[in-house]
Every structure is written in C-alpha cells, then in structure tokens.
Amino acid sequence: MRENIFLQIYTEYSNRIHSGQLAPGTKLPSESELAEAYQTSRETVRKALNLLFREGYINKIKGRGSFVLDMTRMDFPVTGLISFQELTGTLGVTSRTLVEETVLEPAGSLLARQLHIAEETPVWKVIRAREIEAERIILDKDYFRSDIVPFLSKEIAEGSIYEYLESELGLKISYAKKLISVEPSTGEDQRLLDLKQYTHIVVVRNYVYLENTVLFQYTESRHRLDKFQFVDFARRVRR
C-alpha cells in the first residue's frame, strides 16, 4: 500500500479536479503539507504531483507551488481515439445513439480515395445521430473496410463499435489522422440533427489505422457549432 501511495494522491486530486471540488487556479498544498497529510515522503508526493502535471491537471510554478488548470474545456479531445460511449461516460451526461443506417455497399469513387481501395470494394457504412441531454448534436458517418471488418449490425452500432472491434474481432486500433473544418450544413445534417438556427457545422474527418499501420476506417463526425469545443493540452518543451 505504501508503495502505491503516490497513485492514491494522484487519483484523489485528479478526481477532485474533475468533479469541480478544486476550481481552476486553486493552489494545492505544498509538498511538505501533502507529505504530512498522507504520512509519506516528499519524494512520493513529488512523484504524484509530477504525474498530475504531465496529465494536464496542474501547473507547477517554481517558487510559488502547484495550481489547478482548467479541465472543463477538455471534454472532447482532439488527439485522443475515444468512442462516444467512453466520452459520454466521462462527461456524466444522458446520451443515446440513434442508428439511421447500417449497410454494406461498394465504396464508390470518394470513399475509394479516402480508404485507398478500389471503387468496387464493399465497405460498411454506418450513420448514427448522437443525442446528448435530449438533443441530437452529433452525426457520425463511419466507413469500415469489409475485408477487415467482415460484419456489422444495427445492434452493434447502437453500442460501441470499437468495443466490438477490439473485444470480439481482436483488432488493435492504434492511431488516427484528423482534419477539422467548419462547413455549411447539408440536408442530411438538417434532417438528422437538431441544428436550430445554425447553418454551419464542425466536421472532424478521421483516418483510423491499425497497429500494423493499415488504414481501415474513415469517419466524418459532424458537430453542432455551439456544443463542442475541440481542445488539446500541450506544453512547450524547453531546449
């Protein structure tokens, strides 16, 4: 237990920051105060603080201490590969997936270029509206190579496709390239989403690769402008 006390400190403080118990700008207790509170060494405390720092929970200012960073803008990470179920689980919101279409069809010229396959190659097309707090604010259009994903169904699409791909098919999903733009909404957007007065939409195009570097999925994730901020956390590396 004593060997893992730094993880206890990290978990307790990261949870308090996520829950809002510690507001952005709050100064954490000093290393000495934390060491006394947890009956451990300053080295152990420093290890926990360094982990909080690396994960973007706090900023450490030399001579002043550690301060809580604003985590509320990190609800939809740009760089992560996270499923809708995983995302809404961390946000703690009421959500629902509405499957509009799950069909196997020839790629055609546009998808063939995106997935680097022949036009006649069958691909799985999955269209899903994502409802959060009773509003349909995300439209996900997913396309999977059928030679890698041989079967999909509406039932699978209603849950987590990634969980099915990893747990049932044993695929090792590794990384993605993402392109983000703001574009005029389409008729499909207006039909399947609650766009209100918004005439434009945020489009995130994902090119998703397996561990063996094979491109197997292309996705257009279309978001209502007012609902999501796409953020990342970065630190400047001093050279």
Automatic annotation (TrEMBL):
Keywords noted in UniProt: DNA-binding, Transcription, Transcription regulation
Does Secreted appear among the keywords? no
The uppermost taxa in this organism's lineage are: Bacteria, Bacillati, Bacillota, Bacilli, Bacillales
Q: Which organism is it from?
A: Paenibacillus silagei
Note the CDD domains from the entry: WHTH_GntR
Name the domain of life.
Bacteria
Q: One Pfam family this chain carries?
A: GntR
**Cited PROSITE patterns:** HTH_GNTR
Quote the protein name from its UniProt record: Trehalose operon repressor
Q: Which InterPro entries match?
A: Bact_HTH_transcr_reg, Chorismate_lyase_/UTRA_dom_sf, TreR, Tscrpt_reg_HTH_GntR, UTRA, WH-like_DNA-bd_sf, WH_DNA-bd_sf
NCBIfam families from the entry? trehalos_R_Bsub
Q: Which SUPFAM superfamilies match?
A: Chorismate lyase-like, Winged helix' DNA-binding domain
On whether DNA repair is a keyword of this UniProt record, the answer is no
